[in-house]
Amino acid sequence: MPTHFSPQAIQFLRGLARNNRRDWFDARKQVYETELKAPLLALIEEINGDLMDFAPEHIRPASKCMFRIYRDTRFSPDKTPYKKHISAWWARQGLEKKSGGGFYFHLSAEELVIAAGVYMPEREQLLAIRNHLMEHHEEFRKLSKARSLQRLMSDFDGKRLMRPPKGFPKDHPAADLIACRQWGVSTTLPAEISLKPTLRKEIVSRFLAAAPLIEFLNRPLTSYSATKSDRLIDFY
């Protein structure tokens, strides 16, 4: 039977949201390991098998896809030690330590979020994507508005600037796209979806629909990475 989560997993996340403390978590760590971490790793492996058919360059070891539940509180005024959700991210090979386009989902006590896109591009990546959109905005619009994708997911706001960034023309047909700092799609489903054997299908069907858009967004980034690597080789 395909991997899915148990009611105990949702109960744990609900309790963690109310009791985000180390003593509470430590007393229930075995529940986390059994009901959340183990199923999540198994689900990632199953999704990896599906990605082989339409996005093989995003296949990664399950332990590398899964985000830690522990929060990095060093630079945050919020010192609660744990995230209120579990999550996974399928980066593209070669962009693992950067912020290229990828596939994502998270589960909290309230919701299941499934998303795909570019979220926190580095400065050079941001410029590369904007230049790519200048030349290929029609292709992007066609991909993002594909009926198969819009039926399953919605565009997110992209942290849009009030006007195109410096150096880009205001009257260009891609001005609205260039003003974004993120590009992608997402959907939010009830957390109860995670309790059903159809969970994997819910996730993979959306990843499949978004795959052409992710390939488009990664195209200038992989070209940039290859060029940068060639320069390093030439230098040494």
In short:
With 236 residues, the chain is an alpha+beta fold. 49% of the residues lie in helices and 13% in strands. It has a single domain, classed as 2-Layer Sandwich (BirA Bifunctional Protein, domain 2).
Structure description:
This protein is an alpha+beta fold. The protein has one domain: BirA Bifunctional Protein, domain 2 (2-Layer Sandwich). It is built from eight helices and five strands; from the N terminus they run ααααβββααβαβα. The protein has a five-stranded antiparallel β-sheet. Mean pLDDT is about 90; it is low at about 225-235.
List descriptors:
BirA Bifunctional Protein, domain 2; alpha+beta; 236 residues; 5 strands; 5-stranded antiparallel β-sheet; globular
CATH topology: BirA Bifunctional Protein, domain 2
Number of domains: 1
Number of strands: 5
> Regions with pLDDT < 50 over 5+ consecutive residues?
226-236
Main β-sheet description: 5 strands, antiparallel
Percent of residues in helices comes to 40-55%
Task: Walk across the major sheet and give the strand order.
Answer: 1-2-3-5-4
Could you give me the name of the CATH homologous superfamily? Answer: Protein of unknown function DUF1054
Strand content: 5-15%
Note the total helix count. 8
Category from helices, strands and their pairing: alpha+beta
Query: At the first level of CATH, what is the class?
Result: Alpha Beta
CATH level-two architecture: 2-Layer Sandwich
Mean pLDDT: 92
User: Could you say which overall geometry the principal axes of the C-alpha atoms support?
Assistant: globular
Rounded to the nearest angstrom, the distance between the terminal CA atoms is 52 Å
The ordered H/E elements are: HHHHEEEHHEHEH
Radius of gyration in whole Å, from Cα?
Answer: 19 Å
